[in-house]
């Protein structure tokens, strides 16, 4: 049987049919962060498998199908974080409490819609370029790195909204094991060659810029900003790899 923290990570990060044996303890929820990069690698592997099945399908159609499956695998969870963060960042006018309040509002304004469209459009365009040039590594690296950024964010950044899953992740994160685990994943990524170096640079720059913005505005991170980091990190990786292909 799979470890419960892995099952928690799969259930939260994907829409794969995963059933937990019972209500998880907060400690197990925190340990699930150790498995986030592996879940990203699994999603990348599924996308690569679909790419192989699609064969000679034209790049435009294949990119659309891959992106649709990619979004479906996560249930749009992190896109919701992008939308909430975009609304809050613009509507918050630099005020911390107003920004947090807008993030909690389930409604999406026009800024959220515009940002979502732009993110998906950029991902789609980058996928078309990568598929046309046979640069398949991006399908693996983008979801892998995107989900590796989340434990790094919780390791280095205060969680500022009380209650919920995010607080359990932050408080029960196994800090002593995480740096070594992330280092192992980075070394594994480097086996993919030069594209991994560009992908790591893009993800690292995206992480630094967004974390700096989160801390400056909020004093830390929330679940929504964590989701935004994942999506924008994936987008940055795809764009840089497409530009370098």
* Helical segment count: 12
Instruction: Please tell me the overall pLDDT.
Output: 94
The sequence of SSEs as H and E is: HHHHHHHHHHHH
Indicate the proportion of strand residues.
Answer: under 5%
Radius of gyration: 17 Å
By secondary-structure content and strand pairing, the structural class works out as: mainly alpha
What is the strand tally?
Answer: 0
List low-confidence stretches. Answer: none
The major sheet is characterized as: none
Characterise this structure.
By secondary structure, the protein is mainly alpha-helical. It has helices at 4-13, 26-31, 36-54, 59-74, 77-91, 96-104, 110-132, 137-156, 164-171, 178-190, 194-218, 223-244. The N and C termini lie far apart (41 Å). The mean pLDDT is 94.
Question: What's the layout of helices and strands?
Answer:
Blueprint: H1 4-13, H2 26-31, H3 36-54, H4 59-74, H5 77-91, H6 96-104, H7 110-132, H8 137-156, H9 164-171, H10 178-190, H11 194-218, H12 223-244
Helix pairs in contact: 3-4, 3-8, 4-7, 5-6, 5-7, 5-12, 7-12, 8-10, 8-11, 8-12, 11-12
């Amino acid at each position: 049987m799979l470890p419960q923290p892995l099952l928690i990570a799969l259930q939260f990060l994907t829409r794969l049919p995963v059933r937990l044996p019972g209500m998880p303890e907060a400690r197990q929820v925190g340990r699930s962060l150790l498995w986030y990069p592996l879940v990203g690698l699994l999603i990348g592997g599924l996308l690569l498998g679909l790419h192989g099945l699609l064969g000679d399908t034209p790049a435009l159609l294949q990119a659309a199908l891959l992106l649709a499956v990619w979004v479906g695998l996560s249930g749009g969870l992190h896109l919701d974080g992008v939308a909430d963060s975009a609304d809050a960042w613009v509507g918050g006018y630099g005020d911390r409490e107003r920004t947090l309040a807008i993030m909690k509002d389930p409604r999406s304004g026009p800024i959220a819609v515009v940002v979502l469209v732009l993110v998906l459009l950029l991902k789609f365009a980058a996928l078309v370029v990568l598929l046309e040039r046979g640069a398949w590594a991006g399908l693996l690296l983008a979801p892998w790195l995107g989900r590796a950024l989340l434990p790094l964010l919780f390791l280095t950044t205060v969680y500022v909204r009380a209650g919920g899953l995010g607080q359990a992740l932050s408080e029960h994160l196994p800090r002593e094991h995480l740096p070594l685990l992330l280092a192992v994943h980075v070394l594994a990524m480097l086996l993919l060659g030069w594209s991994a170096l560009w992908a790591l640079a893009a993800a690292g720059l995206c992480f630094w810029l967004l974390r700096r913005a989160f801390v400056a505005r909020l004093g830390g991170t929330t679940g929504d900003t964590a989701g935004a980091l994942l999506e924008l990190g994936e987008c940055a990786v795809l764009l840089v790899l497409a530009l370098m292909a």
